[in-house]
Write a structure and sequence with these properties.
- The protein has helices spanning about 10-15, 35-45, 55, 75-85, 100-110, 125-135, 170-180, 180-195, 280-285, 290-295, 295-300, 335-345, 355-365, 370-385, 420-430; strands at about 1-5, 25-30, 50, 65, 85-90, 115, 140-150, 200-205, 225-235, 240-245, 255, 260-265, 275-280, 305-310.
- It is of the alpha/beta class.
- The strands form two sheets. Strands 8-9-10-7-11-12-13-14 form an eight-stranded mixed β-sheet, with helices on one face. Strands 3-2-1-4-5-6 form a six-stranded parallel β-sheet, with helices on both faces.
- The radius of gyration is 24 Å and the shape is globular.
Length: about 450
Amino acid sequence: MRVGIVGCGYVVDDYLRTLPDHPELELVAVTDRNPDRARQVASRYHARWYATTDELLEDSAIQLVVNLTSPESHFEVARAALLAGKHVYGEKPLTLCFEHARELVDLARECGLMLSGAPCALLGDSWGVVQQLVKQGAVGQPKVVYAELDDNPIHLMRPQEWRSESGTPWPYENEFEVGCTLEHASYHVAMLAALFGPVVSVTPFAACLIPDKSPDLPATPPAPDLSVAVLRFGAGVVARLTCSTVAPYDHRLRIIGDEGMVTLDECWHNRSPVHLETFTQLSLNARKLRMIRHSPLLSRLVGIRGRRRPLGAEKPTAGHVPAAGPGIGPSSWAMRVRNHLRRHQMISMDFLLGPQDMARALEEGRDPVMSPEFVLHVTEVTLLISRASSHAQSVPPTTTFAPIDLPTIPGPQWQPTAGTRVSQRLDDFIVSLHNRGTTATAPEKPDRLSAPGRLGD
């Protein structure tokens, strides 16, 4: 599929970094309101550049427009691209107005064109393992989800100095004006909706706790830098989502069932560690001891957090775009080490997984996995959370979508493990510690937890 990109800001390098890994995609042209930036990105990634969006849309070679403009331009650019007969993949949020988002979905359907959008983290290997474990019953019946997206108090981290690989500054003014919820909540919303189906109720809370993040910001009403939302899904699962740029970094997601818990360590890494814990008397009660909670070794010995699940073999890559390029200095040893640490220890998302799926969908004659209705639903829920006040209230979304069928991840299937006599005796002993009476009678075996690693009928 031949691709044109509108918007050559900070995020364009995140998208094009993995371009060599996607032979289905061919970058044809780019454009930006800053011609110098468009020219630099085009030279770096061997594409044409256009001075205006209209010129790019007139290029008949382009099939898919990837909309990487700032959020306030998302609707205008996406609508123009659809009217020009192009498929569209948009950065999040799809639009800043729900009515505009619905208009784009209707227009795409009327024109027979594909419309999809970020985030595409649900197509990564880690989330594939998470959804597979949940569907196989590894945690029993899912009950509650705790999803964190605290992204550090960014205003203390000198964001004015951040640069992309191609030298583009991080748009901290726009990020602060739009707010962390619109930028980040959709990651968890999309992943959970893909697994549990549409959200049926949203109870949101949002507030701006640090209004004076930068003297460079205009005197406009500040966007929320903290939001907390309780989402109820049709399957009965309840999720608590937290987004902030106030608290220290924490991107974990935990799905807790009546028999265990699966933990995704980092939602911004396609191969983040995934741990599965099967509840036992030992693991549940040992948590009450401070020395165990604060000791990774002791926690592991008693089964807290469980075992790390295999993600399968890492897909072979054609090699990422090197750090050196037009306008960039030669790749140094320090830069190579930094890039390696970023890919393996920090954020590492393949932003082209979404466009790649659209290319395959076009070839196979189907909707993309993240269909227009799915993206519309995620957009609506995200907007409901972001526009909440400090007085929480439940709001039912008006949209829905067909079930998401994510691809099965190859690898060993989860199987429950049987407990041993030793572990059962440990269970009985730990349960007996909760007997506050004076008698020394042995406690009865509980109905739900019969042995470590396996639950009773």
